[in-house]
Specification:
Blueprint: H1 2-8, H2 16-36, H3 51-71, H4 75-79, H5 81-98, E1 100-102, E2 105-111, E3 114-116, H6 118-134, H7 144-163, H8 167-172, H9 176-182, H10 187-205, H11 208-225, H12 230-256, H13 260-269, H14 281-292, H15 304-307, H16 320-351, H17 356-380, H18 398-416
Antiparallel strand pairs: 1-2, 2-3
């Protein structure tokens, strides 16, 4: 019997490099939050009245939840993937009904004095649901039905979050296209996505009439150089018409749907407005803070731009400014290299999985982290619009830290039993 029990024991191997990188960012983020809102009359880092003190509490909560995830059987996440997705959707709908407004978005739920943002937790729930569906038996992503269902699973939470006025968080779900591409999404979908983004930007820069004329000219030129049969003519005409309608809708959305502050941010980014005291203030102060750090920075707790509150949201969306000002160009490059190492490790873990469910989930994790990292750094440098995207594991915020911890620790748990000689599959 003892021998039988020993045979049933499963070796358990945690990817320690990923875990170490996680805590490097979490602890580094805590000290940057401390530096960004530091007050001499509140020097204790565990002062619960300050953001850094609250972050200490959230680090403890997140570590405890992470430990629980590592102790759960990995099959739990496969078995309850759809249930977690359903709960996430229900919470997103509940926010629309009974949510509280905070900083212009109606996306928060008050629980015992704490604010939670269900949209953050919908990310890993959607990743699990997609992994279960696409990793299912006889599911082939090349089939149109499978593609439509997958895209629908992504668009559903994305649409609900848009109604909460959380555009930035909603856009994160678009990052799943990288996972879909890995699973067989044709490359022309990425090209179409690029063209949609390009035309959207051009629609905001070039007068609509000129852009429509340009689309018509390009369509005529294409008809001159391709084989002109009924099918090709209809395709060219249909694509041209679709882009014309899209250009018109972008202008309509910009003029009649977007809020004034959103339009100002886009205009400042595109160079159509110069508003250093309004919409452009955040980015301008961010660039000043980063640039003032020079090569090696001013030193820990020596950042004047952050210390004197010149940079708004300096402990959340613009936390990277603290890195740039206090640790300089060298520290910023080191930080980016560490993040790239984490992304590489996540992709490495995803590729070594034996099961599609694990691999797909791993690519979802990589896509979400990459999107957040790229957008956050881009907006602090003024090369991307400010859309309220936190820096994973680094920015202040309980919902953000907890959701990213769950996202990553589920992957670590799924990977932990990779050395087992398992028979069969999750099915």
């Amino acid at each position: 019997m003892i021998q039988s029990q020993q045979q049933n024991l499963k070796p358990f191997s945690i990817d320690w490099l990923t875990l170490v990188l996680y805590y490097i960012f979490v602890v580094g983020g805590l000290f940057c939050i401390y530096a960004s809102v530091y007050k001499e009359d509140h020097p204790l880092i565990y002062d619960a009245g300050m953001n850094y003190g609250k972050q200490v509490i959230w680090i403890g909560i997140s570590s405890f939840i992470g430990l629980l995830i590592l102790l759960v059987d990995e099959k739990f996440f496969y078995a309850f993937a759809y249930a977690l997705y359903g709960i996430a959707i229900a919470l997103l709908i509940a926010v629309l009904i009974m949510g509280t407004s905070f900083r212009g978005s109606n996306s928060w739920i008050e629980i015992g004095g704490f604010r939670l943002q269900p949209a953050e937790f919908a990310k890993f729930a959607t990743a699990l649901a997609l992994a279960k569906y696409l990793g299912g038996f006889r599911i082939k992503f090349t089939e149109r039905k499978v593609q439509y269902i997958s895209i629908g699973m992504i668009l559903l939470p994305m649409a609900i979050i848009l109604f909460q006025n959380e555009t930035g968080t909603a856009l994160v779900f678009g990052s799943f296209i990288f996972m879909l591409y890995r699973e067989g999404l044709p490359g022309y979908f990425l090209f179409i996505g690029f063209m949609i983004a390009l035309m959207g930007v051009l629609a905001l820069i070039v007068p609509p009439l000129y852009l429509i004329i340009a689309i018509g000219v390009i369509a005529i030129l294409m008809l001159l150089f391709i084989r002109r049969n009924r099918q090709n003519i209809l395709i060219v005409f249909g694509v041209a018409l679709a882009f014309i309608i899209y250009v018109g809708s972008v202008n309509y959305m910009f003029e009649h749907v977007m809020q004034a502050h959103q339009k100002s941010r886009i205009n400042v980014l595109l160079g159509k407005e110069v508003d250093l005291k309004g919409a452009g203030y955040n980015v301008q102060q961010s660039k000043i803070a980063i640039g003032s750090g020079g090569l090696t920075g001013k030193g820990f707790l020596q950042g004047t731009q952050n210390k004197f509150r010149f940079v708004p949201e300096q402990s959340t969306d613009f936390i990277f400014c603290t890195v740039g000002e206090e640790f300089g160009f060298a520290g910023s490059v080191g930080f980016i290299v560490m993040y790239l190492l984490l992304l590489w490790r996540v992709l490495f873990i995803a590729e070594r999985q034996r099961y599609k469910f694990n691999r797909i989930y791993g690519y979802c994790v990589a896509a979400i982290l990459f999107f957040h990292f790229t957008i956050n750094i881009g907006m602090t440098l003024g090369i991307l619009p400010v859309i309220g995207i936190p820096l994973p594991f680094f920015s202040y915020g309980g919902s953000s830290l907890l959701s990213f911890t769950i996202l990553l620790f589920i992957l670590i748990r799924l990977d932990a039993n990779r050395i087992n000689e398992l028979q069969g599959s999750f099915e």
